[in-house]
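Re-run with default settings, no changes from the original entry. Doing this only to confirm the output is reproducible before filing.
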Amino acid sequence: AGALAIPLGASPLGLLPRTAFADAGPWPAFLGNNRHSGLSATPGPRLLTLAWYVNLSDDVESTPVIANDGSVYVAANNGRVTGRTSDGGEKWTFEAGARIYASPVLGVDGEILIGDTRGRFRALRAEDGTIAWTVLGLGSVRATAVVAPDGTAFVGTEAGALLAMDTRDKG
């Protein structure tokens, strides 16, 4: 996922974010990058047509992320996280057992990182949607995480905490 790099001792004013982890995918984070620009470097089609549709049985307030292989990962508010192939075919579905409002992000090891309202922050394996690892007891996680170049995931909770978690090689 992209990351905002702030050199040690630097003021956050006037710093320009830089994209990290270009290999994470063409749309690895909420609104495409840590600047949340919602813009792609690739021009889109002039005429849009529906390529595929998936019913997730609840509202989807988050944005999907796209991996380099074209896989799409999205979370519905009911806690259903789904992995889809680039043509819409189902890779897997994971039921979190709690509401999810945040967008998933791609971690440096290729996992899908997502928090839920029961205070769990998880990494799901991209290939099959199984849990690679879980952090418990965080307070409701409704925010979308960001991942730094070193693999540290930052996320806020409704308990008033900002967490920094090393996500590398956990699962």
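The two ends are 18 Å apart (CA to CA). The chain has a mean pLDDT of 81.
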